[in-house]
């Protein structure tokens, strides 16, 4: 488990599944203790099969030819239609790409001013990503917790992050780890009222160094990333914790669809 801290140097506060990592805000909280990996449970001892009395072989029947997964086909067609809409709106420069449906993910995290991410095993450079997100916080009031995605993650921990906050805004930031680790907000855009428990469909459109965030298919804000930096890297689910109380922040991601743009 990697840990870094999460804070903002800008005017305001600041992504199937393989590895679990987390970030902490330098100087505000100690690094989290690594969680030990559970010991593998030994495989059960094989039980010899009982010897059955010989019986005549049944007549072989042919298995019907598999029918196409109509639900999956419809999902691809529906998402392709959205891609065309985003192209027409000039959010993306091409409709060429490939479709991937990601596994659902949920996580609770209780460590204030930290964010934790769970890698998807994918590393799209330019993409359109949609996910139905539900959140709840153990804090009585909506805090700085949030749910979203880390993208273009580097082996040294550098990355971008975009998330929906319980305070009713979306925010994007970048984290750079050099001689002094720091996180800088690229801005935020309001989409609704603060809510301790809530849900929204988050769409993240990334091409070049422009990152657009839509909530319930409405454009909330376009962010500008670093020129010439973090141009490639991994994609991950992320949970931002704004409270130490009880289970902290719980995020659930469902119906997560990815369109990897091909140039």
Question: Layout of SSEs?
Answer:
Layout: E1 20-24, H1 70-88, E2 97-101, E3 105-109, E4 114-119, E5 127-137, E6 146-153, E7 159-165, E8 169-176, E9 182-190, E10 197-207, E11 210-215, E12 218-224, E13 234-241, E14 249-261
Antiparallel strand pairs: 1-4, 2-14, 3-14, 4-13, 5-10, 5-14, 6-7, 6-13, 7-8, 8-9, 10-11, 11-12
**How many helices does DSSP assign?**
1
> Which topology does CATH recognise?
Jelly Rolls
What fraction of residues sit in β-strands?
Answer: 35-45%
CATH class: Mainly Beta
Describe the structure.
- The two termini are 35 Å apart.
- The chain is mostly beta strands.
- Strands 1-4-13-6-7-8-9 form a 7-stranded antiparallel β-sheet, with no helix packed on it. Strands 2, 3, 5, 10, 11, 12 and 14 form a 7-stranded antiparallel β-sheet that branches.
- The chain has one domain: Sandwich (Jelly Rolls), CATH 2.60.120.560.
- The chain has 1 helix and 14 strands.
- A hairpin with a 2-residue loop joins strand 11 and strand 12.
């Amino acid at each position: 488990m990697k840990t870094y801290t999460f804070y903002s140097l800008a005017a305001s506060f600041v992504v199937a599944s393989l590895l679990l990592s987390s970030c902490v805000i330098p100087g505000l909280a100690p690094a989290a203790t690594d969680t030990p990996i559970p010991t593998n449970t030994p495989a059960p001892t094989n039980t010899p099969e009982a010897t059955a009395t010989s019986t005549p072989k049944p007549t072989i029947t042919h298995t019907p030819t598999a029918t196409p997964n109509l639900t999956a086909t419809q999902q691809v067609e529906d998402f392709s239609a959205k891609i065309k809409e985003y192209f027409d709106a000039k959010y993306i420069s091409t409709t060429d790409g490939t479709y991937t449906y990601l596994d659902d993910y949920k996580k609770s995290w209780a460590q204030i001013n930290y964010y934790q991410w769970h890698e998807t095993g994918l590393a799209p450079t330019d993409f359109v990503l949609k996910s139905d997100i539900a959140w709840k916080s153990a804090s009585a009031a909506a805090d700085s917790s949030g749910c979203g995605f880390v993208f273009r993650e580097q082996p040294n921990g550098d990355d971008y992050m975009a998330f929906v906050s319980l305070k009713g805004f979306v925010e994007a930031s970048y984290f750079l780890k050099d001689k002094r680790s720091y996180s800088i907000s690229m801005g935020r855009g309001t989409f609704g009222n603060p809510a301790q428990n809530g849900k929204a469909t988050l769409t993240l459109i990334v091409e070049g160094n422009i990152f657009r965030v839509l909530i319930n298919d409405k454009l909330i804000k376009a962010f500008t990333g670093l020129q010439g930096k973090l141009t490639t890297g991994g994609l991950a689910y992320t949970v931002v914790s704004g409270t130490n109380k009880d289970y902290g922040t719980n995020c659930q991601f469902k119906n997560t669809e990815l369109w990897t743009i091909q140039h």
